[in-house]
Amino acid sequence: MRIGIGYDVHPFEKGRPLMLGGVHIEGEDGLSGHSDGDALLHAITDAILGASGLGDIGQHFPSDDPTYSGADSLELLRRVGALVKEVGYSVENVDAAVIAEHPRLQPFVERMRLRIASALGISEGQVSVKATTQDGLGAVGRGEGIAAMAVALIK
């Protein structure tokens, strides 16, 4: 068994769609980033890569590579899930938290869990997604962006 952690944070960017956990959240400004800016999926991807000793998301999908401009982070997670299987590991569970003052994310959590589980080829019961706030502290607490952290267990 191996454990990895991941963390990501992105500021809001007007005019971009908000993608979190592979779910489009209508009516909200999106997150800046080279790909679709999905901070939750980026944190999960880094946790899985870290657990498997395969580096980080930036090594596999560099932000200076135009191939990944606007990339679907759910597809990047799928690719990492397949890579981890190729080297002999299976994802046993993912536990993640999204930190955001807005929007309220609870209505989207179940869809996020389903999308993440599907991308990794695991059951929804092996994926936990929680939402919390920063209680007004720091940049995320002032509503300037969204952060996410994740832990992955692989076997």
How do the helices and strands line up, and which of them pair or pack?
Layout lengths: L1 E19 L2 E9 L7 H14 L4 H4 L12 H14 L4 E9 L9 H12 L6 E6 L5 H4 L3 E10 L1
Parallel strand pairs: 3-4
Antiparallel strand pairs: 1-2, 1-5, 3-5
Task: Offer a concise description of the structure.
With 155 residues, the chain is α+β, with helices and mostly antiparallel strands.
Give the name of the CATH architecture. 2-Layer Sandwich
Q: In CATH's first tier, which class applies?
A: Alpha Beta
Low-confidence stretches: none
Mean pLDDT: 96
Q: Would you report the number of β strands?
A: 5
Rg on CA atoms, Å: 14 Å
Textual characterization of the structure:
- The chain has 155 residues and is α+β, with helices and mostly antiparallel strands.
- It has a single domain (2-154), classed as 60s Ribosomal Protein L30, Chain: A (2-Layer Sandwich), CATH 3.30.1330.
- It has 5 helices and 5 strands, in the order E-E-H-H-H-E-H-E-H-E.
- The protein has a 5-stranded mixed sheet.
- A hairpin with a 2-residue loop joins strand 1 (2-20) and strand 2 (23-31).
- Helix 1 (39-52) packs parallel to helix 3 (73-86) and helix 3 packs parallel to helix 4 (109-120).
- The chain starts with a strand and ends with a strand.
- The mean pLDDT is 96.
